[in-house]
């Protein structure tokens, strides 16, 4: 299994660790310390060696932070973890706070006194984050102090070793472009921006430009490393040499200099001393890197990571690989749905057993075409009944709920294959759904179809498109509190920037980008509904009778949508036509890969709505 279901536990000497940290701070003259859930690479997923927040507080969620002061401490989590944090953290040690509504720098502002010294690890906070803390400290006459050593590391006696997964080459016939070609393109971008170099601090950007992949963190096939992209010289990849085979080192050396990570700051200092102009993304670059450059008299040019947009615009080879991955994954998902149809209402299956079964079907899917499942793309969200209403629910042994007749089951899952990354959500009626469930599901479906069929001019933002997915819910006084869509990589991060379809999505989707389409509805304590497919932005094309070319979407996820939950009377003829056409395509595409009960299920599940 790529996922474990261990129950959260307080079986850690948290109080003792907190006392030890305060003693360590006292020895260095500090009145506080900031502990983010972050590593030196600022990725969504971090290795065990960087789980300082979990070690100190007991909280194991994927986002959060803590601040420890001399006489009080707080742990900050978002709405996904309101219940989990109280299960895992002793509130006598850490007061739970709202990460979004009352973020750490605002909480600290009310606690500061003049001359306080609050420490932080400049490898773990980005330049933008440090500026927020510095502003509140300066206003109070306090100091935000960059530390050369993390005080937690000094007291974490059994800290795991950093990961050493072997780096692998992503073949050009899957990448669609050689690394040399990508480097040249990016060097042209640097020339346009008038900079001499750019820091690449995001692991997926580095993986993309060098056509490499790894397994240093869960679920995302990246290599923890840094890179310097130079306008007029070879780039440099800074990576632990133990991760490289001799063959791969030789191949990479043909297009880049290879150095150890410890050389990165040395080379930044040299760039600064030479008066170079260096592009830095303040939102993703550790503050230490920016300060190293400026201390050496280099010129910091703030801007976005230059790789992010080119990476998001998938080429034809990447798109075809992703389509293959989705056909493979769709067959696995359909086998799973057929199995669930036969077994889900027996009263014996649980959220964990069902999630394990789905992973089993995926593991079997790639054997025939030699594209095995290499990882899941995130921890499967397997929510029965009221657990489905928890948007980012992660089942464990203590919360594992049985699937019961008369309820809804929501499963949000994905896979990492060598040729593509998948992410799909289906909501399934276990037994007979209520009329309210059918109404809500159909309104979510209407929003899904509205986005899938949208035609829109170049420059339309994700926020503008987001309203399409909510309209049918809004008309009934309903809504959902997450974004409608995020970017997805190709055998890379399942959550990829910079474009998103959400109320805060201010960038426009561009041709070739892969996004999710996942409106939902959640009734607390009762059920959750989400329908998610991945979609590709199609090139501008004319519309008959129109005077302007329009972008659109191609749906690439292929799996049945539960017809038992559709209130057909709520759909327009156009919406019914889309649903029937989608199911016909699912049936035609997947049938050759299925047989027996799975094929019979597919044929039945994809019949026309009014057949």
From TrEMBL:
CDD domains: APP. Its EC number is 3.4.11.-. The keyword Protease applies. Residues 321-538 form the Peptidase M24 domain. The keyword Nucleotidyltransferase does not apply. Residues 549-609 form the Peptidase M24 C-terminal domain. One of its GO terms (molecular function) is aminopeptidase activity. Residues 17-149 form the Creatinase N-terminal domain. It is an enzyme of class 3 (hydrolase). Belongs to the peptidase M24B family. PANTHER family: XAA-PRO AMINOPEPTIDASE 1. This is Aminopeptidase P family protein. It comes from Kaistia terrae. The lineage of its organism: Bacteria, Pseudomonadati, Pseudomonadota, Alphaproteobacteria, Hyphomicrobiales.
């Amino acid at each position: 299994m790529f996922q474990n279901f261990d129950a959260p536990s307080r079986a850690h000497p948290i109080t003792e660790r907190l006392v030890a940290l305060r003693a360590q701070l006292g020895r260095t003259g500090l009145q506080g310390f900031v502990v983010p859930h972050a590593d030196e690479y600022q990725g969504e997923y971090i290795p065990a060696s960087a789980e300082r927040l979990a070690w100190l507080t007991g909280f194991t969620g994927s986002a959060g932070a803590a601040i420890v002061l001399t006489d009080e401490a707080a742990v900050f989590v978002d709405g996904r973890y309101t219940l989990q944090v109280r299960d895992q953290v002793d509130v006598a040690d850490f007061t739970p706070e709202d990460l979004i509504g009352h973020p750490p720098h605002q909480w600290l502002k009310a606690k500061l006194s003049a001359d306080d010294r609050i420490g932080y690890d400049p490898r773990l906070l980005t330049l933008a984050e440090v500026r927020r803390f510095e502003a509140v400290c300066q206003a109070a006459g306090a100091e935000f102090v960059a530390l050369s050593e993390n005080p937690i590391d000094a007291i974490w006696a059994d800290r795991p070793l950093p990961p050493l997964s072997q780096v692998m080459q992503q073949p050009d016939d899957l990448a669609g472009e050689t690394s040399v070609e990508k480097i040249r393109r990016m060097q042209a971008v640097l020339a346009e921006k008038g900079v001499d170099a750019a820091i690449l601090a995001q692991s997926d950007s580095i993986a993309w430009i060098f056509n490499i992949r790894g397994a240093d963190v869960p679920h995302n096939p990246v290599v923890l490393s840094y890179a310097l992209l130079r306008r007029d010289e070879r780039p440099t990849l800074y990576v632990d040499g133990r991760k490289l085979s001799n063959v791969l080192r030789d191949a990479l050396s043909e297009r880049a200099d290879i150095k150890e990570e410890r050389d990165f700051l040395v080379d930044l200092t040299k760039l600064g001393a030479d008066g170079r102009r260096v592009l830095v993304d303040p939102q993703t670059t550790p503050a230490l890197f920016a300060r190293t450059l400026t201390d050496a008299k280099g010129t910091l040019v703030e801007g976005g990571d230059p790789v992010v947009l080119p990476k998001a615009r998938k080429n034809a080879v990447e798109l075809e690989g992703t389509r293959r991955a989705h056909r493979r994954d769709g067959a696995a998902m359909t086998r799973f749905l057929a199995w669930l149809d036969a077994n889900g209402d027996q009263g014996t299956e649980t959220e964990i057993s069902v999630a394990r079964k789905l992973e089993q079907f995926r593991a079997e899917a790639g054997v025939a075409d030699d594209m095995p499942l290499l990882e899941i793309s995130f921890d499967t969200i397997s929510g029965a009944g009221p657990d489905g209403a928890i948007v980012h629910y992660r089942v464990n042994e203590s919360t594992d709920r049985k699937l019961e007749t008369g309820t809804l089951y929501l499963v949000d899952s994905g896979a990492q294959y060598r040729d593509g990354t998948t992410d799909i959500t289906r909501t399934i009626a276990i037994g007979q759904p209520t009329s309210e469930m059918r109404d809500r599901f159909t309104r979510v479906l209407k929003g899904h179809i509205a986005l899938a069929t949208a035609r829109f001019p170049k420059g339309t933002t994700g926020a503008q498109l987001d309203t399409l997915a909510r309209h049918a819910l809004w008309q009934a006084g309903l809504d959902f509190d997450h974004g409608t869509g995020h970017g997805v990589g190709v055998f890379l991060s399942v959550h990829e920037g910079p474009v998103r379809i959400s109320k805060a999505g201010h960038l426009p989707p561009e041709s070739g980008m892969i996004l999710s389409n996942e409106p939902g509805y959640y009734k607390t304590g009762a059920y959750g509904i989400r329908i998610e497919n991945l979609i590709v932005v199609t090139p501008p094309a004319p519309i008959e009778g129109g005077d302007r070319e329009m972008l659109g979407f191609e749906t690439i996820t292929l799996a049945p949508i539960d017809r038992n939950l559709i209130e057909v009377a709520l759909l327009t003829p156009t919406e019914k036509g889309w649903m029937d056409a989608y199911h016909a395509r699912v049936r035609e595409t997947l049938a050759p890969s299925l047989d027996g009960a799975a094929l019979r299920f597919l044929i039945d599940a994809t019949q026309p709505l009014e057949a």
